[in-house]
Amino acid sequence: MTQAAVTTFPLTDAVQEALAISLRGVDELLPQEDWARKLARAEASGQPLRIKLGLDPTAPDIHLGHTVVLNKMRQLQDLGHQVIFLIGDFTTLIGDPSGRNSTRPPLTAEQIQANAQTYYTQAAKVLDPARTEIRYNSEWSDQLGARGMIELAAKYTVARMMERNDFHQRFTQGSSISLHEFLYPLLQGYDSVALRSDLELGGTDQKFNLLMGRHLQQEYGQEPQCVLTMPLLVGLDGVEKMSKSKGNYIGITEDANTMFAKVLSISDELMWDWYTLLSFKSLAEIAALRQEVQDGRNPKEAKVLLAREITTRFHSAQAAEAAEADFHHRSRGGIPDEIPELQLSGAPLGIGALLRQAGLAPSTSEANRLIDGGGVRVDGAVVGDRGLRLGAGSYVLQVGKRKFARVQLAG
């Protein structure tokens, strides 16, 4: 960027507001000054910026944690910019080693195609499909050929590649690193060249790859993109990042009743992080709501508003309303006036162990059998995942029609 760009395109109030929206909830925006200048240029010229998000279709479904970056895309889309939803059908053949201590086994072309078919359908629940450009990186990666791949590889050094944390750790530990793994960040970076992106989004674990795009754009004589990383969403247990393997997730294809009840199960403190990263309410609205809670409003009312918003996004307003009614009906009608009250520790605690410690199941294996049979409820919602872990808080546990316990779970 030149100094002239600063003087030609002033940072107006509208640009400052767009910058504030860009920065909401982010981990890093690099370089922030360049992004402000791009925003100013876009406002002055009327030419929207090109904003890229690449996702490898490694699984058929996505959960709320994946939508954190999609929400940021939607915010920028609503500012009038062109968002590009890039499906990494070519790079998935390699397998991204980011954040791993070993290479991820590549999927077959058939698995990739099957997963890709559902990815955008689910992402369209957040993005506006009419204003979203859908691309596949096989469009240009397939065309590179051996000569193009060698020319691309010549634009980065092995020494710089080994600065990436996971490669460095594996090398020092004596773990193997296949040569093809070096191609992944190069190809992801080349996507930015092919798309001439102005901004690329990703999780914090993608920072190296995102900066690679910036470097390669400069190598190919393009204006370098800016990089925006979003934090990883903490899951239902309030401790670890949302993950299916940890059982602390909400899948965006889950039924409305389950989704609504799961949002209500998060802690009061975690709720505000979720508001920042998942809600489309303005920061001013969230701050006002938080102040109301500090002034005495029941935090559960704020949590209900969040559950209603998220359930509406992935289902409908009518489904959210029905889910709320169903939750209140089950939480009121099915619980006797007097039930055992217990204080337990060890949060986050697996649901099987919690049922055993609460005296509602003789063993964890029997608790799992009851879960598989649909006979376990937490706060009125049926538990369908034996991997569920509950964070600190108060819960009403129910097994079958007659066994209840109100548990205060501490860390």
Attribute tags:
six-stranded mixed beta sheet; Tyrosyl-Transfer RNA Synthetase; 17 helices; Structural Genomics Hypothetical 15.5 Kd Protein In mrcA-pckA Intergenic Region, Chain A; disordered N terminus; protein biosynthesis; Tyrosine--tRNA ligase; five-stranded mixed beta sheet; 411 residues; aminoacyl-trna synthetase; Rossmann-like_a/b/a_fold; Rossmann fold; ligase
Helix/strand layout:
Elements: H1 3-8, H2 13-23, E1 28-30, H3 32-45, E2 50-55, H4 67-78, E3 82-87, H5 109-123, E4 132-136, H6 138-153, H7 158-161, H8 165-172, H9 179-195, E5 199-203, H10 207-219, E6 226-230, H11 256-264, H12 268-278, H13 283-294, H14 299-314, H15 317-333, E7 341-345, E8 349-350, H16 351-357, H17 364-372, E9 376-378, E10 381-382, E11 389-390, E12 393-399, E13 403-410
Parallel strand pairs: 2-3, 2-5, 3-4, 5-6, 7-13
Antiparallel strand pairs: 1-6, 8-11, 9-10, 9-12, 12-13
Stretches where pLDDT falls below 50 for ≥5 residues? 1-7
Overall number of domains: 3
Question: Mind telling me which CATH architecture of the largest domain this is?
Answer: 3-Layer(aba) Sandwich
* Cα gyration radius (Å): 24 Å
Give the CA-CA distance, first to last residue. Answer: 51 Å
Determine the fraction of residues in helical runs and give it as a percent range. Answer: 40-55%
- Characterize the largest beta sheet: strand count, sense, and whether it forms a barrel: 6 strands, mixed
Read across the widest sheet, the strand sequence of neighbours is: 1-6-5-2-3-4
Beta content comes to 5-15%
